[in-house]
């Protein structure tokens, strides 16, 4: 089976379930977005979180996808940067516990923290303090980090450092890897559209986007956006929430249904786990429809829990569902 390495912001998620959305307005965080915050805003959020029940989990878009892949038994690794602190230790220990090859660098800044607000409808909003995660630089990366892998999965949240992303992609290409890019967030795409276009036109093989991100990138609705993106890369995936996903490779196009979920608890990691399932299917050599259906199983399960850490029993059920998909 092909191995996949993730490159992303090594963030620890601190999740809080809200009774209403008033704190989002208070903190100036648009619902459903990812906003970068400074230490002052982080402290304000921490003061509020200290009065609430919170849950701790490793996070970051690429980190979530790699965790999902590892939980299915795929060969994985992760490149990121943490601080020399308890959050950094927590992140490293979680990678090792899940048999993920740990390629973490340690910086001088505090580890990155994603304050995650879960609205009553399950929608999540992030106030992200990047800290050490954002201090990963081009000079930190060598070709040896990528050797032995077949795919590099990159989260779009990293695009603020153009030099580092381009260096990582060029090293990975030199090592023979295919490049997978998740567009991350509609506002991230809007703010750096020209660079995203360059990456997808020139380097990226597989693009993951939800309908908002796809519209930010193309200006079009999902099906038309899919056509535009598919002409720029090998495989294009546009996720449309409860309606499933559209996938296109060349002239082949698939519409996969989402699994029915009666109780959406937290949508954190839904897109990341879809990518994990899809890429797992791809590394096993399955067709597009089976890859998408495996992605739907993972995303449908992760939205039923707070955070992205699923209990063993749930993973056992997921694997049974995947076996059913494979045998069809």
UniProtKB/TrEMBL annotation:
GO molecular function: kinase activity
Protein name: Sugar or nucleoside kinase, ribokinase family
Gene3D superfamilies: 3.40.1190.20
Protein's UniProt keywords contain Disulfide bond: no
Family named by the database record: Belongs to the carbohydrate kinase PfkB family.
InterPro entries reported for this sequence: Carb_kinase_PfkB-like, Carboh/pur_kinase_PfkB_CS, PfkB_dom, Ribokinase-like
Keyword Transport: no
Signal peptide limits: none
Source domain of life: Bacteria
Ranges where the Carbohydrate kinase PfkB domain occurs: 51-312
Record key words, sorted: Kinase, Transferase
Pfam family, one: PfkB
Protein's organism: Bacteroides luti
Lineage: Bacteria, Pseudomonadati, Bacteroidota, Bacteroidia, Bacteroidales
């Amino acid at each position: 089976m092909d191995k996949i390495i993730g490159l992303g912001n090594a963030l620890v998620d601190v999740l809080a379930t809200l009774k209403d959305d008033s704190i989002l307005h208070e903190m100036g965080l648009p619902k459903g977005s990812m906003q970068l915050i400074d230490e002052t805003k982080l402290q304000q959020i921490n003061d509020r979180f200290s009065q609430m029940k919170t849950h701790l989990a490793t996070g970051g878009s690429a980190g979530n996808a790699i965790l999902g892949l590892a939980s299915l038994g795929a060969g994985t690794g992760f490149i990121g940067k943490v601080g020399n602190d308890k959050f950094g230790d927590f992140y490293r220990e979680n990678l090792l516990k899940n048999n993920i090859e740990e390629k973490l660098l340690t910086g001088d800044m505090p580890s990155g923290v994603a304050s995650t607000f879960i609205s009553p409808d399950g929608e999540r909003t992030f106030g992200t303090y990047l800290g050490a995660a954002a201090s990963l630089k081009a000079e930190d990366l060598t070709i040896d980090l990528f050797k032995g892998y077949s795919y590099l999965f990159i989260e779009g949240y990293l695009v603020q450092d153009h030099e580092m992303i381009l260096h990582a992609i060029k090293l990975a290409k030199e090592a023979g890897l295919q490049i997978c890019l998740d567009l991350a967030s509609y506002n991230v795409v809007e703010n750096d559209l020209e660079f995203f276009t360059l990456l997808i036109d020139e380097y990226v093989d597989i693009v993951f986007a939800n309908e908002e991100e796809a519209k930010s990138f193309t200006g079009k609705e999902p099906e038309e956006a899919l056509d535009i993106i598919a002409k720029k890369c090998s495989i294009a995936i546009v996720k449309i929430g409860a309606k499933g996903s559209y996938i296109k490779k060349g002239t082949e196009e698939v519409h996969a249904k989402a699994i029915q979920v009666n109780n959406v608890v937290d949508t954190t990691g839904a897109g990341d786990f879809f990518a994990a399932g899809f890429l797992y299917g791809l590394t096993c050599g399955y067709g597009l429809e089976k890859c998408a259906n495996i992605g739907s199983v993972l995303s449908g399960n992760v939205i039923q829990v707070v955070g992205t850490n699923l209990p063993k029993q749930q993973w056992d059920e997921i694997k049974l569902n995947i076996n059913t998909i494979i045998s069809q």
